[in-house]
Design brief:
The protein is of the alpha/beta class. The chain folds into two domains: 131 residues, 3-Layer(aba) Sandwich (Rossmann fold), CATH 3.40.50.620; 144 residues, Rossmann fold (3-Layer(aba) Sandwich). The chain contains 13 helices and ten strands. Strands 3-2-1-4-5 form a five-stranded parallel sheet, with helices on both faces. Helix 8 packs across helix 9. The C terminus is likely disordered.
Length: 309
């Protein structure tokens, strides 16, 4: 009889699409896959054990037969105590194979009857690693093909101390109010519309427009810490809301507002990340609502946002 349960253990610092692919494929083979976030005493982690576990839970929420836990100690001990006969290992290259074979033999030496099931990574994911993800973030690179959006946002916060929020149709007066009222943290306003106009004056190819815009934004935010407000119009927001992790403040003052709002809500649902604050033009409580959004989205703002009244 085939084993019904298997365990996939990793550091998850942070979880990547490479990890997720192995877990998804294992979940098609076994009735239940336990994803175990572990602790290696020899490693120094970017995220705490609890944070790594939470990121894994949020990233794997759509896979119904996967359960995320955290553990300490020998993996084979944990597997034996929980009646899990198989350990799953992902392999990116021959170096991974050599390393994992050693761990397999070490596990066998404990004589607990736990076996190993190897799954090779897909070719298009072989370059992805937690280390590469951190290095890319330190240089403000694009991470959308490496990690889920929830992980991208946490990396920006932890490594770069950056908190991105998109502002659409929001007046300069409101932006000035946000800047004035936030203490102990810099606020930067990046006018994406203006950057786009600069490119149009020099480049005619639309494809190059988009690539050039991303590079310009990357340079504009490089090294900046604090709250970064990306000011953009509706058309740009539809294309690049991922840059602010679908965290958006939208002033609804156009006839196309409802359709655009539905588009943004769909993005948030599909990416399992983001918050949308809709401001009506004549609403006198813009300040209070913006404060609430920032505090819900970024816990740090509970400490740095003063009364926005």
């Amino acid at each position: 009889m085939k084993p019904k349960k298997a365990i996939y253990a990793f550091s998850g610092d942070p979880i990547t699409y490479g990890h997720i692919d192995i877990i998804q494929r294992a979940a098609k083979i076994f009735d239940e896959v336990i994803v175990a976030v572990g602790v290696n005493p020899a490693k120094k982690y970017l995220f705490t054990l609890k944070e790594r576990e939470e990121l894994a839970i949020r990233s794997l929420v759509e896979i119904k037969n996967v359960k995320v836990i955290s553990f300490r100690g020998l993996l084979v001990d944990h597997a034996f105590e929980n009646d899990i006969p198989v350990i799953i290992k992902g392999l990116r290259n021959h170096e991974d194979f050599g390393f994992e074979m050693v761990l397999h033999h070490v596990g066998e030496s404990q004589k607990l009857g736990i076996d190993t099931f190897f799954i090779p990574s897909r070719q298009e994911l072989q370059h992805i690693s937690s280390g590469a993800v951190k290095a890319i973030q330190l240089e403000q690179g694009t991470l959308t093909e490496y990690v889920p959006m929830v992980v991208k946002q946490k990396l920006e916060e932890r490594l770069s101390e950056q908190f991105f929020c998109g502002v659409i149709n929001v007046t300069d007066k409101t932006l000035e109010m946000i800047t004035r009222r936030i203490e102990h943290m810099p606020v930067h306003i990046i006018n994406i519309d203006a950057l786009k106009d600069e490119i149009k004056n020099h480049v005619s190819d639309e494809t190059i427009h988009d690539q050039s815009l991303i590079v310009k934004i990357r340079k504009a935010v490089y090294g900046k810490r604090g709250l970064i407000l990306l000011k953009m119009n509706e058309n740009l927001a539809d294309k690049i809301s991922y840059l602010c992790n679908n965290n958006l403040i939208y002033l609804n003052d156009t006839s196309s507002g409802l359709s655009f709002i539905n588009t943004l809500k769909k993005k948030i649902k599909n990416d399992s990340n983001g918050k949308l604050l809709i401001l009506e033009k004549d609403d006198p409580k813009h300040a209070e609502k913006i404060q609430s959004l920032l505090e819900e989205t970024f816990t740090v703002f509970k400490e740095v946002v003063t009364s926005l009244k």
